[in-house]
Amino acid sequence: MPELRFSINDELYLRDPQSTTFGKTILKNSIELMFELGFEAFTFKKLAIRMSSAEASVYRYFENKHKLLLFLTNWYWEWVLYSLQINTLNLENPEKKLEVVIHNIVNASIENVDTDYINENRLHQLIIQESTKAYHITNIDEENDLGFFLSYKKLVEHISTVILELNPNFLYPTSLASNLIEMANNQTYFAEHLPRLTDIKNDETKNEQIKHMLLFFTKKMVSPN
Fold it and tell me: Is the predicted pLDDT of residue 27 greater than 90, yes or no?
């Protein structure tokens, strides 16, 4: 099978890292290093050392680490959308489709063997830990005008259409769709680090607990009865 590659806003990079071996190495190692150090401590100098390369070589692909984080979050959103579209392709039952959508949101860590430069499991963990730093920023409106969050918007729009299949009269499909994504990530984070903020237990059934919770809330809110 051909290697999975997504169309990411070209304002985020100077050269598409998906197009070269070195660029893919940047993506692979930046995911690991950002997760290990945290976004604040992550630098291109540390990334270059990890890659046994020159720091200037990284700057040929990305202007700064903020745009690199945005690239990774966009790749993640495109990956989740791709998974939803593939796994709901032949489904017609709205309730079953919703179950598959929520399953994919929660289990976005399933790795794709055809893209060995992206470890989806570790990227999912990075998104839970660091992704809000990509868009909870002062100049959000400027970056939004540049289309930096279009991938996220496409994902939310797709989920909202599934919600409306359950109940075409539901008033808040977009709000619910974005909250399902954020809730899945936040509840995972809370279970792992701030357990008094959630009812989810941090054990081997964590993902199943979160899936059940999201389905419970969604069906309660969306049901026309």
Answer: yes
Which of 112, 116, 126 has the alpha carbon at shortest distance from 83? 112
Query: 206-210 long-range CB contacts below 8 Å, 24 or more apart?
Result: 207/106, 207/107, 210/106, 210/184
Q: Is the pTM of this model over 0.90?
A: yes
Which of the four pLDDT bands, split at 50, 70 and 90, describes residue 111? low
Q: What ranges do the domains of the chain cover?
A: 10-222
The confidence score (pLDDT) of residue 107 equals: 87
Sign of CA dihedral 45, 47, 53, 56: negative
User: Over 80: is that where the pLDDT of 76 sits?
Assistant: yes
List CB contacts of 42: < 8 A, sequence separation 6 or more. 30, 33, 34, 65
Banded pLDDT at 116 (limits 50, 70, 90):
confident
Q: How far apart are the first and last CA of the chain?
A: 45
Q: Which two tokens stand for residue 99?
A: 């179950």
Q: Name the most confidently modeled range: 48-62, 106-120, 125-139.
A: 48-62
Q: Which long-range contacts (CB under 8 A, 24 or more apart) does 205-209 make?
A: 207/106, 207/107
CATH number, domain 10-222: 1.10.357.10
How far, in whole angstroms, is CA 135 from its chain's centroid? 12
